[in-house]
Amino acid sequence: MKPPQVPGAAKPFVWQDNRVYFVDQRELPLAEKWITCSDEKQVAAVIRDMVVRGAPAIGIAAALGMALAFHPEHPLWSQSGVNEELLHEHWQGSYKLLAESRPTAVNLFWALRRMEALWQGIDKKLESLELFAALLQEAFAIWQETIAADQAMARYGAPLLPPGGILTHCNTGALATGGLGTALGVIFQVGRQGDGVRVWVDETRPYLQGARLTAYELAQEGMDFRLISDNMAASAMSRGWVGSVIVGADRIAANGDTANKVGTLNLAILAQHYGIPFYVAAPLSTLDRRTPTGQEIPIEEREAQELTRVRGTAITADYPVWNPAFDITPHSLIRAIITEKGVIEKPTVQEIDRFLA
Ligand code: MRU
Question: 190 near 268, Cβ under 8 Å?
Fold first, then answer.
């Protein structure tokens, strides 16, 4: 069984010799280090510690983690009396571990549910190798579909962006999806069409996904870009340098309210003020119709040291901190959601229902 191939130059993970190799995104772009995972516990840890991040990428990682939990060399199989009950217990434990790794990106839960549907239908009396192969095949299918979805989003999204600079936030490229990227995939497509465009890259405090990862991917792609700190976006917009804003999503509620990296809401409000269209690019696996509005989306809160330190160096004292990783952009501020099946203009619960019907 051949693993999917990430189309771009930047790769969040590689499957080789029955292991996943994750590029350590905490170290990019200053160093390229790889972390090897051979079981579900290691995969849960790399998701939790943000070695791998970005909603679709953590979904794929979790699916690969579920497959690794049943690898023929996993200690599970050396226990005496392996029976269906034990296999099921191990399934549930692995599922819980991965599901608890990060709370906001719904692709994680979506991918785990996909694996669960396969598990329910599978013959548990299969040999360990067959069980593992079936799970791995499903994980690869999720990955392959993500690659195809990214390419479709790029095709739907690129023609929408008006001339002028494009501003983006966080990292939504290959590193975040295992494919071309969502919002950044659309931007790459615009660049590949030869429309000379400048990309404005929000540094994305406090984790700096923009400064470290988006800038790295744009440099590899050879696109023209300028890195700005998050509080410079209004200045760039006020000078007419930004024709559109495009971001990704970690979870889109049934009414179109969108959770994305904290700071996205600021941009949406600014874009409205300056009359700049604000787009979200996300695969349908990011749409969570079980969650009615943005208010019900769980927002991850991360450790204080992400704000008080930079690469381990203190930049202030250990003051009290509030560090939410995501914010919610109300659907009223979103011009359109770009998906792999087409574009949802001015998203509302009715528009989304109509689109999916
Ligand atoms: O905390 P992160 O780096 O996992 O957050 C990622 C984002 O907010 C991305 O914008 C989102 O996952 C979309 S990725 C295609």
Answer: no
